[in-house]
Amino acid sequence: MTVSGLATPFGFQSFPNFTQGRQGNSVNKIVIHHMATTDYDSVPGIWNSRQASAHYGIGQDGQIRAYVDEDNTAWHAGDWGTNLTSIGIEHANVNLAPNYDIAQATIESSAKLVADIAKRYGFGQVVPYKNLFPHSQFTSTACPGQLKDKLQEIADRANTINNGGQSVPTQSTTTEQPAQPTSTGSSAIDKFKAGGDRFVLQGSFINNTCELQYGIYQVRSQELTAEPFSWRDNGIPTKLLEDLDDPQGRSFNDGGRVAFKKEYQRGTIDKYSENANAVGIDFLDGNGIIWFDADKFWNHA
Ligand SMILES: [Zn+2]
């Protein structure tokens, strides 16, 4: 399962109108849509009755919701070959016809999500009509309204983000994080070493998915994990974690917020991988190293 760390699952795959897998294809483009509604919460429920779906939706305030696993094929482009090779992003409108305006906060979040997707799938530069398309490119439709004229703006912002202009903040870092060390200057690995190999990780992060792997329940969090991900090296056992959304039941539902238990929030880094920009920690001494992206880990202190 693949969901952007920027997104919160909402009605996630609660509708039938998408296809499991991508029939062997890989993602090489993003298709931009507008919702043609101001009712952000009505999506994706409408896809129970309409033969359509998309991977993500962005609200008027810039919130990003995930509706369909990126590894699955959403029905959004009106063209099957495009559906198989693309990620579809919906955008809420702030008014209806004839303007169908889009809030600037929505466009800003769109750029962040586009940057994140482009980075993860190795698009290189985001370029309109090369890897970023309006829905109308693939079928006869008025969608995406005025966003058709904003593709270059979205691409420019996304490229600035990916070219080191700034890191991609996630919702967890904008809501309940304490003051954090900034990660400008030397690399995160250098900073961990300079601090005597000590780490602190008190911040919460999203559990993108929780699975029974290698006989233990583990959480995958794209906010922390080194890529490429493997359950053997990068999964976080639930016994290390608090389930902040369900502290009693510890159900670890996908998309929930989790944090390390107090006793695991501080400790020593056991290994570094300079090549992978990763830090390795053996939380339960002798139970095996878990590898995290050094910058992501640093930024969650
Ligand atoms: Zn559309």
UniProtKB/TrEMBL annotation:
Source superkingdom: Bacteria
Protein keywords: Cell wall biogenesis/degradation, Hydrolase
EC number: 3.5.1.28
Residue ranges of coiled coil: none
Xref: CDD domains: PGRP
An annotated GO BP: peptidoglycan turnover
Molecular functions per Gene Ontology: N-acetylmuramoyl-L-alanine amidase activity
Chain segments carrying region Disordered: 160-188
Enzyme class: hydrolase
Stretches assigned to the N-acetylmuramoyl-L-alanine amidase domain: 15-145
Catalysed reaction, written as an equation: Hydrolyzes the link between N-acetylmuramoyl residues and L-amino acid residues in certain cell-wall glycopeptides
Compositional bias ranges of the Polar residues kind: 160-187
PANTHER family: N-ACETYLMURAMOYL-L-ALANINE AMIDASE AMID
Name of the protein: N-acetylmuramoyl-L-alanine amidase
Organism annotation: Fructobacillus tropaeoli
